[in-house]
Amino acid sequence: MPSPTSGTQAQTVAQFRALIWHSLDNGLLETALFTAERLVAFDIKNGDAVHLHALCLFRNGQYRQAEALTKRWIRHVGCAYIFAQCCLALGNKKEAAGIAALEECKRLWVPVTGWNNHTDTERKILPDAAAMHCMIGKLWAALGDTKKAVESYVAAVKVNPFLWEAFTGLCNTGVNLRVNNIFKPSPDMIEYCKVQPPMYVAEKPVLPTQLASENYQSDPFMSAQIRDRSDLAFNNHPSFFNRLNEGSTSHHLETPTAQTTGVGQGDMLGAANGMGDKTPPIRKTRAAAADLATRKLTSRSSRDPANELKRPVAVAPTTAEPSVPPAPARRSTRLNTLKFGSKLGASDRETRLASKERERDQKKRAASARLRSNLIGGMAGIGKDKEKDRVPEDVNVRGYPTSRHRSTSDNPSQNKRKEPPETSLTRDTKKQMPDVAKIQAPPAPSKPQYDKSREEALTFLLEMYKKMGNGYFGLTRYNCQDALQAFSSLPIAQRETPRIQCLIGKAYHEMAQYKEAEKLFANVRALDPARTEDMEVYSTILWHQRNDTQLSYLAQELMGIDRNAPESWCALGNCFSLQRDHDQALKCFKKATSLDPKLAYAFTLQGHEHVSNEEYDKALTAYRNAVSADNRHYNAWYGLGKVYEKMGKYEVAEKHFRTAAKINPTNNVLVCCVGVVLEKMKDYDAALVQYNNAVKLSPKSSLARFKKAKILMLLQKYDLALHELLILKDLSPNEATVHFSLGRLYKCIHDKPNAIKHLTIALNLDPKAGHLIKEVIENLDEDDSYSVEDSDVYRLLDGDQ
């Protein structure tokens, strides 16, 4: 197979790329990979071809192959980006190599944001600076360097506030944000709203000098009018004639009519210059060329009576056009004699040819004078004086020959053309010819105006993103009320989407309002039955509701949808956990973490099951893995604290509980856990502070008020304790522990009737603890003080799984 030329090679590469993008856009990955391999083999030294091949491999899930392919091309922006994506997907501390690759080609990044450069028919193949910063932020976050991740995410949202991944990554780091300052118009958006008015193109005559100057750079052979007419080598260049004869069309001569305003003068100029003639004349003189053009024009005018010089033909005059006198008849005679080799005698041939030449010259002079007079008469302000404007007979219409043959005069000096002296005609023509600069000068451009539709669209998008951003930021900071308020301000169509419904359900879940959360997730299942994302949260909500039937149904559905989804295995594990089958639950949770090592919640569920089996060492390992996957997963820190509390390491437990409370400062259960540990360390005053904070966070929390009442009774502040217990009785009227505590309190303040009353209610509510309650009733007459053991008979809901 012969090697292709440079032009063919470029077209072949373009065809390859078009086939690859067609396959990628239509999901035909096998075809895309096959074609990409052919492209790389065809153009092996091209980084763009390697980038397309690596992109096909990455989209097909072949991360290791894509990484190996792009490792040697990291100086190419596209290859470096694919390499970084592969490093992030593969993990195992390869993220540092991805960061180094992106930083090395930083000077080649596309600085202009591409948020408005992609349409249904156009795309920017290489990633822009915003995408690069976002990718670096992900890599730093995977390495655990929160500070550098924040810097990269901030740089990304500054360039493109619509980059949702960068915004959510920034929120997940835990840094404080001003969301309203992120979703606001950037300078690029303001420029995008500006509309440049269309340039006004005035109708102006196309002058020969203008035409020549415009074509001088693009096609030097078309600008012969501004060249030296003595350059015979140039005028007779084969490319020049090919350009005139092969590249032109005959439409100039098919429309001999012209407009006096100057529009269409370029076409008429081409016709007058013989641009439409594809048959070279036999004669070698300039006069013969002019004669041929004149005869064609007059013959067409005679065939079309309607166009027979009824309107003047307006063509811009050539002020600097040199006039070349016709060549002597002897020269043409000799040339014809040499060319055709006639058998006639020399004298007869010369006589006949001379007479024919004289007739042709006379006809040519008459036609040229008539044509030039009509041409000049068509211009504004010219032609008033017929006698003054008459064209001399020695003025040639043509400025250069159109023959393919070279002149073969014996005397080279005869080939040189002389510039004619300036006549009155040329002086008047120069004075009255239109000013080219004035004709070409367009009007001053008006100031760009705002496109209201673009501005309104951007305002709508930014406002919508701002609301969703405030909601997501509030949820990541566990300000659930603020998050719910932000989500509720969205349009109904946006609020009813599955993603937003899941976020609202998570907010209710964090607030322990499981009924509302269950309704929202059930709505998500109806909107998107094939969705597996966030379904592990839904399974946990059903676990708290003790709804084993619905939980079993959910687990079966998810396993039928996607057995390789970690959320499906989490739901199945929660189903086994609710049935007290902890071993099977552990197997399911381990399968989930094997599918997604970054799913911290699955590690946390493993830890809970190990605690149920009293395998504290394994539980610590599971919780630590969860913290490694996500150091802001407060459930894992809470689990560590509970394990250390059970092991009697209260100081270590307090540290982990405080870390969890710092991540989620709105969770009153975590604050109460800190108070419980302090209470067990006999630091009752510090414990009371924590319980007060918990009550402030959630005034309707039964757990917080019960813990506060108990510590007040230990401090013998019975009046304050009685106030808390009475409020708690209204909140939980059927809780046996509350009535038992009230009975003990009334016993301490020597209110025997009320003590018997509440102790009897507690006995009726919980007959299993009858022996303990009867013991207190029998000892009512004894003077006894309240102890910690009295409050540990029953345990309220404390947030444990």
From TrEMBL:
TPR repeats: 130-163, 498-531, 566-599, 600-633, 634-667, 668-701, 736-769
An annotated GO cellular component: anaphase-promoting complex
InterPro entries: TPR-like_helical_dom_sf, TPR_rpt
GO biological process: anaphase-promoting complex-dependent catabolic process; cell division; metaphase/anaphase transition of mitotic cell cycle; protein ubiquitination
Keywords, ordered alphabetically: Nucleus, Repeat, TPR repeat
Keyword Repeat: yes
Similarity comment: family membership: Belongs to the APC3/CDC27 family.
Designated name of the protein: Similar to Protein bimA acc. no. P17885
Origin species: Pyronema omphalodes (strain CBS 100304)
